[in-house]
Design goal:
Blueprint: H1 2-14, E1 27-32, H2 34-39, H3 41-51, E2 56-61, H4 68-73, E3 78-82, E4 93-100, E5 102-107, H5 119-124, E6 126-130, H6 139-146, E7 152-157, H7 160-168, E8 173-177, H8 178-187, E9 190-194, E10 202-208, H9 216-229
Parallel strand pairs: 1-2, 1-3, 6-7, 6-8
Antiparallel strand pairs: 3-10, 4-10, 5-8, 5-9
């Protein structure tokens, strides 16, 4: 307790007063979901090549518990994930960087009455459930429960790749954030369709430990990433 607090204080006092991206050899450790790996990491790497060529990024996959101890010790710099997966303790810093609608992904040749997924289809179609964190429920399930319904999950998939493969060869439905849905539909024989309007959106949250909040390097990275997900 006290020893750790003193060590952290010392570490902070030693932190450089400013961060020089061009000269830096800093390694940032991000704990995140494969959504972020698909959508945010590629443009981030591109920007770092121009702005901070010596900076490296290490990705750790977020499981179903928040790595609080690693955030406190500085072993992990930031956690990026969706709020529905886990409770974030009040003492941690948290910001929502992005809110986006969910979409339904089906094989490109599937014939539907209209080019959208209706509530009936959400209930009747068998789902491929993409659960990288091993969770068994998502905001969509809570939404359906609130209407007195549930869906049938016939396959649990650990990755977008396997989920996309299954859907492209079956009559299954995959519900996921619209940006990833569009990305997959541009590479696979799939089409991305809108869901009913009142289905809740996905939220991309950034979580950090307040003891490191004033680190110039961390402030710089957060601002850069925020800009990439929500360009002004």
């Amino acid at each position: 307790g006290v020893q750790q607090a003193l060590r952290l204080l010392e570490q902070q006092l030693w932190e450089e007063d400013e961060f020089a991206p061009r000269q830096s050899k800093r390694r940032f450790v991000l704990c995140t979901t494969d959504y972020v790996e698909c959508v945010l990491i590629p443009p981030l790497i591109q920007r770092l090549r121009k702005l901070a060529p010596g900076v490296t990024i290490e990705i750790r996959i977020l499981r179903d518990t928040l790595p609080e101890a690693e955030l406190a010790s500085g072993e992990i710099d930031l956690v990026l994930g969706f709020d529905e997966y886990m409770q974030v303790p009040g003492y941690l810093g948290k910001e929502t960087w992005l809110t986006e609608p969910l979409a339904g992904l089906v094989r490109a040749t599937l014939e539907l009455e209209e080019e959208r997924i209706t509530l009936d289809q959400l209930i009747e179609m068998p789902h491929v459930f993409h659960s990288p964190l091993g969770t068994s429920e998502a905001s969509l399930d809570r939404y359906l429960q609130s209407l007195g319904h549930s869906r049938t999950i016939s396959v649990n998939s650990q990755s977008y790749m396997s989920a996309a493969t299954i859907v492209s060869q079956s009559d299954h439905l995959l519900v996921l954030p619209s940006m990833v849905a569009e990305l997959l539909a541009s590479h696979w024989p799939l089409k991305s369709l809108p869901l009913p309007d009142d289905v809740p959106d996905y939220h991309l949250n950034c979580v950090w430990h307040p003891v490191h909040a004033q680190q110039p390097a961390l402030i710089w990275l957060k601002e850069l990433m925020k800009e990439l997900v929500s360009p002004a």
